[in-house]
């Protein structure tokens, strides 16, 4: 009977340990940049955007603007975990030309690419975006949004695009909502920006993490730039498989039966 008592205690400890690890889920970092840029960023450039809302103006602050190169977020002392989820809003500003490689005045318009990678780990996104160049498709795919900021700039404006790749602003959550303008030499002054809300979950168990946000092929801040907002990093344990609970329940039932006998 003493052996069974020890075994029962061990089993209870086993089940409790699994229960604790299964419920562990920690939001490690949340930053909407409304105040000072937090620690861990390789850049502390912070921009205020006065968004021209249909009914009233409001302010958005974001990290940026950036051109070509990499901006990194480094986190340390992460709690024990098995997966990580990073979510954020990507602001694409002015004349992103997607896949268009047309040469103008000796300079190719694109491809205009953006990527997110984990240092020492996977590349989570590597794609191109177009902010309205009617002949420039993009690699990024997704459902067209019906978001409309003004009567003439719905996100699905290029839903009938028939060129190579996907239509401009495919998968964008907002179009022309930030209030940025670009003076096109042929078309004149135009509103031109888009917002993509992105989220990626990947296997990760180290106690440190470095995320690299990058762009390439851009013409410069006054022409093409980008920024980040609403960055959210969450780490979580692997859920306990149902088989573990079934196994534990069966053993508990067996011990109970043997004890009665």
Count of DSSP E strands?
15
- Given the helix and strand composition, which structural class is it? alpha+beta
Order of helices and strands: HEEEEEEEEEEEEEEEH
Broad CATH class of the largest domain: Mainly Beta
Measured by DSSP, the beta-strand proportion falls in 35-45%
Mean pLDDT across the residues is 79
Gyration radius over CA: 25 Å
- Number of structurally distinct domains: 2
User: Could you give the distance between the termini?
Assistant: 11 Å
CATH superfamily of the largest domain: Galactose-binding domain-like
Poorly predicted tracts of residues: 6-24, 242-248
The CATH topology name of the largest domain reads Jelly Rolls
CATH architecture of the largest domain: Sandwich
Number of helices: 2
Task: Walk me through the topology.
Layout: H1 2-23, E1 25-31, E2 46-51, E3 58-66, E4 69-75, E5 83-94, E6 103-104, E7 107-108, E8 113-118, E9 123-128, E10 174-175, E11 181-184, E12 188-191, E13 193-203, E14 209-216, E15 224-236, H2 242-260
Antiparallel strand pairs: 1-15, 2-3, 3-15, 4-14, 5-13, 5-15, 6-7, 8-9, 8-14, 10-13, 11-12
């Amino acid at each position: 009977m003493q052996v069974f008592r020890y075994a029962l205690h061990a089993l209870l400890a086993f089940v409790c340990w699994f229960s604790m690890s299964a419920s562990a889920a920690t939001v490690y970092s949340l930053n909407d940049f409304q105040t000072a840029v937090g620690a861990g960023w390789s850049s502390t450039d912070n921009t205020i955007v006065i968004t021209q809302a249909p009914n009233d103006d409001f302010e958005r602050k974001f990290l940026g603007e950036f051109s070509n190169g990499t901006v990194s977020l480094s986190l340390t002392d992460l709690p024990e975990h098995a997966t990580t989820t990073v979510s954020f809003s990507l602001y694409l500003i002015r004349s992103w030309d997607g896949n268009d490689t047309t040469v103008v005045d000796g300079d190719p318009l694109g491809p205009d690419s953006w990527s997110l990678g984990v240092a020492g780990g996977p590349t989570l996104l590597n794609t191109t975006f177009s902010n309205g160049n009617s002949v420039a498709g993009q690699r990024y795919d997704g459902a067209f949004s019906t978001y409309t900021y003004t009567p003439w700039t719905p996100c699905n404006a290029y839903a009938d695009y028939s060129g190579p790749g996907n239509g401009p602003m495919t998968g964008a959550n907002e179009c022309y909502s930030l209030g940025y303008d670009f003076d096109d030499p042929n078309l004149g002054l135009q509103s031109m920006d888009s917002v993509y809300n992105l989220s990626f979950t990947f296997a990760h168990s180290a106690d440190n993490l470095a995320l690299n946000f990058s762009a390439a092929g851009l013409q410069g801040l006054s022409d093409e730039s980008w920024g980040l907002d609403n960055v959210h990093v969450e780490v979580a344990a692997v859920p306990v498989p149902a088989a573990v609970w079934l196994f534990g329940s069966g053993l508990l039932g067996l011990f109970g039966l043997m004890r009665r006998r």
